[in-house]
Queue: 2 jobs
Job 1
Amino acid sequence: TQLLEQSPQFLSIQEGENLTVYCNSSSVFSSLQWYRQEPGEGPVLLVTVVTGGEVKKLKRLTFQFGDARKDSSLHITAAQPGDTGLYLCAGARSQAGTALIFGKGTTLSVSS
Amino acid sequence: DTEVTQTPKHLVMGMTNKKSLKCEQHMGHRAMYWYKQKAKKPPELMFVYSYEKLSINESVPSRFSPECPNSSLLNLHLHALQPEDSALYLCASSRGRANTEAFFGQGTRLTVV
C-alpha cells in the first residue's frame, strides 16, 4: 500500500517567518505533486516533481524531491497571510488503474 | 479553458431523495475522478473513470452511483444517503494514463438532512 505521511498537520506562524512541510512515504513514487486548497474551493496544483533530487522554485515556495523519490518537502520563505490554506502532497497510486492519492495535509495559518 | 465546472455548488437533500451531481471539463482530459472531502481532512478517492470506463471504485456504498456519459461529463447519482455522507464532493480531471496532474472543480457542498 502506498501511503503518504505529511507533517506537521497544523502550523500557525507569524507573517515573515519561514516554514517547511514534509511529505514521506515508504514507497517510491514516479512523481509527487503539491496542491494548495482554500476553504470552500478545490485543490489547486502548485508543482509536480519528477526527478530524484529535483528542486523547483515558485516565487517564495521551494519544492524538493528526495533522491530516492520517497519524500518531498515544501519550504515557504517569509510567509504571508495569503499563504494560509491546506497544503496537500499527492502521488499516483498504480493499482488496478492509476489514481491520485493524498497525504493528510498541513493546515497553515499565517497571521499578520 | 482550464476549468472543471461542478453543479450545483450547494445541495441539501433528505435521506429519501434522489439527486445528481454534475461535472464538466473541456480540456480533452481522459481521466475523471470523484473525491469526497470532510472538513479539515484530505480528499478521499471514490471513483476513477479512464477513457469513459470505470477503472477504480474504492468500495464506495451503492447509494453513490457514478456515470460518465462522454469524455467531457461525469455525474454522481445520489440515492438514500445518510447524514454522515454530508461533505464536499470534488470532481477532478487529468490527461489520463500516467499523467495524474489533476484539475479540480470548486466542489459541491452536500448536506443530508
Note: The interface with chain B takes residues 30-31, 33, 40-45, 48, 86, 88, 90, 92, 96-105, 107 of chain A (CB under 8 Å).
Job 2
Amino acid sequence: AQKITQTQPGMFVQEKEAVTLDCTYDTSDPSYGLFWYKQPSSGEMIFLIYQGSYDQQNATEGRYSLNFQKARKSANLVISASQLGDSAMYFCAMREGPTGGFKTIFGAGTRLFVKA
Amino acid sequence: KAGVTQTPRYLIKTRGQQVTLSCSPISGHRSVSWYQQTPGQGLQFLFEYFSETQRNKGNFPGRFSGRQFSNSRSEMNVSTLELGDSALYLCASSLEIGGAYGYTFGSGTRLTVV
C-alpha cells in the first residue's frame, strides 16, 4: 500500500505566484517526520523543509512552508513567489517510527514548471 | 564543509558484470543510506548503514549489498548486473538513523547496464 501519495504528476505555475504541491501519507506510528526535497534536472536531491509529527506549528523555510494537517494526514508544500529556478521535481518523504523501521520513504514526485 | 561525495558519476557496464559504487558522507554523519531511482519505480530504499552496521534493508535481491567503513564511507556492490539495474543510485548521509531530520544527498551515480 502506498504510504506517501503525491497525486499531481505535473504542475504549472506563473512566475511570482504561489503554488501548493499536495502530499498525503499513511502511518500508524505516532512519531514520524515529514520532508520535502527538490530535484533539479542535475539530479541532486536538495532538502527543503522538515515537519515533526509533534510540532504544533507549520514549518517554514524562506519561501517554503509546509501545510501540516495531522488529522487529514496531509503535508502540502507551499512555494510562495515562484521563481524560474523552482522548476524541478519535488518529492514528499516520510521517516517512519519503529513500526516502519525508521526508514525514509518517498512519494512518486511532482514535476513543477514555472512559466515566465 | 564538504558535501556528500559519490564516485563515479557515470558508469557503463555489461550484463553479468559487477559494480561497486562509493559514497563519502558529510564529516560527522554516521548514517549512510542508499536509494535507487528509476523513472518507473521512483526512489526505492536499498539499505542503510550506521556505525558500520546495516540497520535497515529494502526489498532488493541479494545481488545488492553494501558495507560501511570505520570512517563512515560506504560502498554499494551489485553483482551479476541485469538491464533493469540501470538507474541513478543516490547516497544520502545524516546524523541520525533514517534521516531523522533530513538527508544530505550526493549527486548520484548513473549506472547504465548494456
Note: The first strand of chain A starts at residue 4 and ends at 5.
